[in-house]
Fold this protein.
Amino acid sequence: MMTPMNPMTPTNKLPKPSAIPNSAQLNQAAIQTSKPSAKPSATDKPQHRDLTDIKDLKTDISHIHEFLGTPTSAAWLEAAKQDLPTLLQDHANCEKKAAGTAMNLIFRYEFHSDLQVKLAQLIREEMLHYEQVLALMRERGQAWQHLPAGRYAKGMLKHKRTFEPAAMMDILIIGAFIEARSCERFAALSEVIDTKDAKLAKYYRYLLKSESRHYEDYLMLAKSLEPHNTTHGGDILDGDTVNAAGSSVDSFSSTVSKTPTDADSLNVAKRVAFFRQIEADLINSPDAELRFHSGTPE
């Protein structure tokens, strides 16, 4: 980065004659700049963008199974196996929406330094996954189609509290459940489609590590709002601060009301238990649509 000039320093001095390049030097410089640049190193390339060098990873997600209230049903796995194009289309939608949701949170809660860092990384990863799913679709000759969102996220968000910082905690916990369910379904799908679609199964196993980390990041950020941990990154995370920081964001501020907080309303374990039951009901109840996070097929 250039150092700003002092406005009082004269800047109209001409260079000394010896510093002015002659025509031969200019020609040589032009030749140098016209030469092809060196081949970028492996670290300069976007990692795994074309899916050709993805390793078949083994990731332990036993903690995901413990976090979730119910496993994915065999009926959903069979329906997904029989309609992979719809699943891929919704997977692409989910990756894009995950990045968009995280970006909204970054703008909404700009005072939370850890959230800024964690979600910036998450956004990059989700958009990379979005590119990768699009590449898989193109490879299979699958055209993009509009696919309405399922009931899953809305079914949890309608239980989000409207006062801060409780609303922030609920959004983060919901984010943790969405990422955890994605991770659980990637793992389950990779087993049932391995003989039918080995490349997609391998890709889903590759996603397990990042999706598992995303769930942990959301949960850690939610825990940072508990009363015993209300100082985070040098900022006080009380209702006044959250409401003030978010008052300029129309999409959120319309539902925000300032309510005194207490240890009980900001208890992550209790809110996790609350949303665990809601999420399990959405996964186990009949669902007319097949989506990546849909319920049991009707």
Observations:
- DSSP finds eleven helices and six strands in the chain.
